[in-house]
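Support request, please re-run this one:
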Amino acid sequence: MRVLNIAYQQLRRYGKTRVSWAQKLTFGFIKNDHYTQTYSDRDIAAFEAPFGIRDLGKKAANERLLETVEAFEPDLIIAGHCDMITNDTLKLIKQKLPNVVIAHCNNDPLFVPSNVERIKHRASVVDAVFVSTGRKELNIFEGFGARVYHMPNPVETSIETLDNSTKSDLPIDLLFCSNSNDFTKRLEMVKYLKDALEGELNFKTFGSFGEPPVWGRDYDKALSQTRMGLNFNRQEGYHWYSSARMAQLAGNGVLQFTHEDARFDELLPAESVVYFKEQDDLLRSIREFYHDDSKRKTWAANTRRFFHEEMNSKLYAQYILEASVQQAFSHDYVWARDINLDGSLKG
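Re-run finished. Output below.
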């Protein structure tokens, strides 16, 4: 199948990129033998705009997308995070290629009101919508015209290459990386832990408390030195929602702690991720696994194995393709056992 993946491809970062779910999706399509091309709306807008001013290139980015579609003739279009592309352009594509299937994939949280509106807006013109929050929370997007699905954050074997569950000589005992303080109070808990654990273990908080953020290879290097990580979202409690940090920690064999309210215990195997409710519970768990390195390794290995076997980019891409084009599921996707092929909840 011919697939066009529209999303920000970080071309102008010139290698100093963030880990990208859109890139993992492209890799997954290719591994499944689908001819895949990418279209980076933000970069094209900047390249085409006068003086490189991106906002002035929005019209050109839409025109170039229409040219790309005409030349490539895709069977499936993924419209990811591509706000430069208008719904009118997607409608034109449908007119030119009546048989093309268009899916919107959204990896942002629902506690950001503008993102909820963005998904509703796309749902009015696409065939399917995939959101990284659990399907039970997605009823608000029904009735706009598109089928609605949950999608996970996957690991990619060429990106998550570490296995810290086999290592003992790791200088960073606990890690938390962040770059956004919008819609969140999570740093209050990080500060509590930092004060409580000071002098007890090496706790790095890149991006907070005066420590500079890390990207690209610097982030890889930080992960390569880490035993345990905090998977704190900006807000907790959304079913099966986590930032991509969960897959990055899991895929590299880093033991992680995450809030129990997201109910990942319904999805992940026992003795993998460490759940907590209150900050005192979390502090006790951190100390427990810090002082029992064998247990830390076992749990981290369990998580890593599960993600690489059941939540990898190849399965992720094939699931999105099959759901989008209404092709019977070829795998027992662990994150889709509660839905029918059309995205509706079972039962």
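The chain has two domains: 2-154+312-336, 164-310. The CA atoms of residues 210 and 329 lie 48 Å apart.
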